[in-house]
Amino acid sequence: MVEATDDGRDMLELQGLNWWAIAVAAVVFFGLAAVWYQPAVMGRKWMAAAGVDPESEGGPNPLMFLITLIIYFIMAIVLAMIARGIGASTFGDALTLGLSTGIAFIALQAWINANYEGRPMGLVIANGGIGVIGHTAMAIIITLWT
To answer: What is the residue extent of each domain of the chain?
Structure first.
């Protein structure tokens, strides 16, 4: 259990989170990623960098999309907890939170993974880029939806 803040709220508890904002934030990230990975946007570059051949793959398993949405929902919960814990309440706070978590937790991890796997920088740009965009969008929604 985390100590209560000065105003009596428990910073890392799930109670009192804006669940509608969290759900919408997760769906927005999912939608942004769906657009991002379209062939005309970053899809072709991602497939080339990841070594994915759309002709031989037979298409993604639909269960992957559900799991992805659940993961985005978990990310949104954690962002909401962090936003509350740091007292984020303005657009600037949201922008800083989203960019910070997107870069530190997604883009840098994408870079580490690509380096160890011997993958091209294009994979880091594709996967890390949407992480930064998605986290920023989620942080804005979560922080400003009161």
So the answer is: 19-51+60-144
